[in-house]
């Protein structure tokens, strides 16, 4: 990266072009990254956390610092349209995911960390996009997941044919994973208006949060519903080692923190009681060492035929796109890693309607993966 910066500065000096303009111009050309190439679409964002497609030419982007912006894919112009004042930038928290509703036009969902009297809560909000402005913002679930730590908020949003799902991390408190009286460490299922479905697994159980769909999660930051096979996938951070890919089923316990494949941060000791326990779901894949997964899609497009039907996850710590092949029984049979030489923390992955894949990185960049 130092070499790249020196090269750019040298070119700017030779051609007497303002540095910012020069950087953008040079980096907007195609960059080789391993056996793949990417094109820079925009740069200079403040920790973009999520990218989502509004229409053929427009993306909506959340920046962790609280800004919401629109990116024109034709002319590459990015304009902020709102700042979410309720969003609290705290550790891993801030303005998190954004998702376009498949149920109502011009409707968007957001997750963010909200400061309350005792700490911070992962929160789901809804708003309307009208004439490039956000209006009618309201919270539809302030989760009961409170912690004063800045760790493990989750939180991704996805939809099946009728419902909304979103994930909540354990908020840095391990016991939360096995405690269904808190939303922490769970995946939540709601009607699009925020009501609790009557067939949620714990809706009639005393002292349980009725919104919970599955529990025993540590920090799921990737969540994707595959409409073709009717499967809900998640990917979550483990401790030191032990990141997991899980196939999510109603009411199931995914083990954290009684079950883990990771080690303690402070020493070479296993976390939890075992790697498997009766009554707890085993992951489809475990990463050792951790890649620090941040997002997840199952690619169904045709622009990159070799990626069709595969899970694709962004990696933060190990800075790459992680590609997982599946067999007919949804078992993961092969792993590949691309874009490692880009050397950027990949925060979000998006497949456009035309089949192109875009990625957003913690360095403030949005790229297009070239065919």
Task: Jot down its keywords.
2 helices; mainly beta; 25 strands; four-stranded antiparallel sheet; Neuraminidase; five-stranded antiparallel sheet; about 375 residues
SSE layout:
Layout: H1 2-15, H2 19-27, E1 30-33, E2 36-42, E3 48-55, E4 58-63, E5 67-72, E6 78-83, E7 95-100, E8 107-116, E9 119-130, E10 133-142, E11 157-159, E12 164-168, E13 186-190, E14 212-215, E15 220-226, E16 231-236, E17 243-248, E18 285-287, E19 293-298, E20 311-315, E21 320-326, E22 332-338, E23 346-351, E24 357-361, E25 366-369
Antiparallel strand pairs: 1-2, 2-25, 3-4, 4-5, 5-6, 7-8, 8-9, 9-10, 11-12, 12-13, 13-14, 15-16, 16-17, 17-18, 19-20, 20-21, 21-22, 23-24, 24-25
Helix pairs in contact: 1-2
